[in-house]
Every structure is written in structure tokens, then in C-alpha cells.
């Protein structure tokens, strides 16, 4: 069922707000499943499968079981290489947990202790101004929609 014009407008506003509030997260969500270099992986994997198939034929013709087994392993490895996704290099970006104020730190159990010490955890910081007003606007719109009885059902 397609979205109504009003729902499409709300969705685009929410997307724009997400881009403004957290551009790193938004760009991570836009990433595709297949990244650059996948064509090379497919070619290399396909070549491994073809070489393995040729070796399998040679192994059967010469009746050498070892060659046949190696050919099978080569074909299996080529197929696995072709369909696997390349590992992303771990960049210098932050690792760990995101605190309520938006900063990052080590995840629980990593590095420093996360127990509140002097000056830590004594006061709670407010969420970012943009995100709280966005949520308030969404709640107001939802209440308005419910009060008006305007549902698609």
C-alpha cells in the first residue's frame, strides 16, 4: 500500500531532521550492501571456481583422488570468496558507547571504568536541543491526528 501524500511529507521531514541531527548515522544508513571492490572479488572467486573445475576434470581423468579433493576445496574457496563481503577497515573513528550528552567513550567492560566518579554522573545532561524539539513536534502531531480522528482506517 503506497504512502499518502501527508505521510510522504512527514517521512521526508523526519529524514531531513535525521540528516541535520546526526549526519554520521544518516550516512551510515545510506550505505549499500555491496561496496567497491566486489567486482574484483567476483572475478577472483569465479577464476578459482573455473581452475578448480579444470583440476577436477584432470583429477578424474588421471584417477588421482588427491587432485580431485584439492580441486573441490579450490572451488569451494572460490565460491566463498566471491559471495563474501570485504571487511571494512577499522578507521580511527570512536569506538565504544555513546553517552547521553552525545560524546563517546569506552564501552562497558572496555578500558576505563564506567562507574560514576568525581564529576561523572553527578548531573544528567539534557538531550540536544534539536532532537528534543523534533520529538516534541512529532508527539504534538500524533496527538493532533488522534484528536481529529483522522486515521486511514
TrEMBL record:
The chain crosses the membrane at residues 39-58, 64-83. Residues 136-153 have a biased composition (Basic and acidic residues). Residues 83-153 are annotated as: Disordered. InterPro entries: DUF3040 (IPR021401). Keywords: Membrane, Transmembrane, Transmembrane helix. It holds the Pfam family DUF3040. This is DUF3040 domain-containing protein.
Amino acid at each position: 500500500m503506497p504512502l499518502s501524500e501527508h505521510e510522504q511529507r512527514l517521512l521526508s521531514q523526519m529524514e531531513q531532521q535525521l540528516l541535520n541531527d546526526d549526519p554520521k548515522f544518516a550516512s551510515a544508513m545510506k550505505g549499500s550492501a555491496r561496496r567497491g571492490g566486489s567486482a574484483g572479488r567476483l572475478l577472483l572467486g569465479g577464476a578459482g571456481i573455473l581452475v578448480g573445475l579444470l583440476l577436477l576434470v584432470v583429477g578424474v581423468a588421471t584417477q588421482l583422488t588427491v587432485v580431485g579433493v584439492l580441486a573441490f576445496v579450490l572451488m569451494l574457496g572460490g565460491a566463498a570468496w566471491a559471495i563474501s563481503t570485504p571487511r571494512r577497515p577499522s578507521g580511527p573513528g570512536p569506538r565504544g558507547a555513546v553517552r547521553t550528552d552525545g560524546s563517546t567513550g569506552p564501552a562497558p567492560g572496555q578500558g576505563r571504568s564506567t562507574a560514576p566518579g568525581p564529576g561523572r554522573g553527578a548531573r544528567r545532561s539534557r538531550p540536544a536541543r534539536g532532537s528534543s524539539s523534533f520529538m516534541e513536534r512529532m508527539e504534538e502531531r500524533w496527538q493532533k491526528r488522534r484528536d481529529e480522528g483522522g486515521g486511514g482506517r
